[in-house]
Amino acid sequence: MQSIDHSTYEALRAGAHVLEADGSGDKVLRLADGRMLKLFRRKRLLSSALFYPYAQRFADNTRALEQRGILCPEVIAVYRIPSIERDGVYYSPLAGNTVRQLQGTSEESDSLRFQLGAYFAQLHEKGVYFRSLHFGNVVLTPDNHLGLIDIADLRCQKRALSDSKRLRNFAHLLRYKEDRQWLLGQDAGDTFIEGYRQALPSNRQAPLISRLRPLLG
């Protein structure tokens, strides 16, 4: 993590467009060069972010995902910006549209649901547990591949996720009303479940799907 002074920060953000902000200030900036600057603040005096800043977690998670062949943003630098009491990650965004942006517009909704099921199975088999999983964090690229964004709240482990972690991950996803309705409405959930099932090892399909189906029913 590189510490930068205020003049360097101002030069970096010159001409930037603010994409996200809250009462405490800017959160996500699209810079003049088309790249992104995501800013993190420590919300509590004592927290894990004191020892392991969220900006560094974001960068470390991109490396872990890349090692697993999972598409994600490309980190250029990680900054500490004392003048605004923020840490920042400077990165090239993942091109495409989020799945949430595509809801209600895609004529291939069933195909996308099936693809998402297979993709989530791939993530889980590769040990990726994304606690902030929702369809605003999953991108469909122009060449029809799926990837993850906003990945500070993500952990990668060496082994495939346990059944309990998979179910918790789906429970996180289904907290969002618009995601749940699009994914499961009018029996659409069967398509998603079938995509997930087919991407699992054959010996894991029946026992895991039997536990997953009631959650998605």
Automatic annotation (TrEMBL):
SUPFAM superfamilies, A to Z: Protein kinase-like (PK-like) (SSF56112)
| InterPro entries linked | Kinase-like_dom_sf
Pfam families linked: Kdo
Superkingdom of source: Bacteria
What this protein is called in its record is Toluene tolerance protein
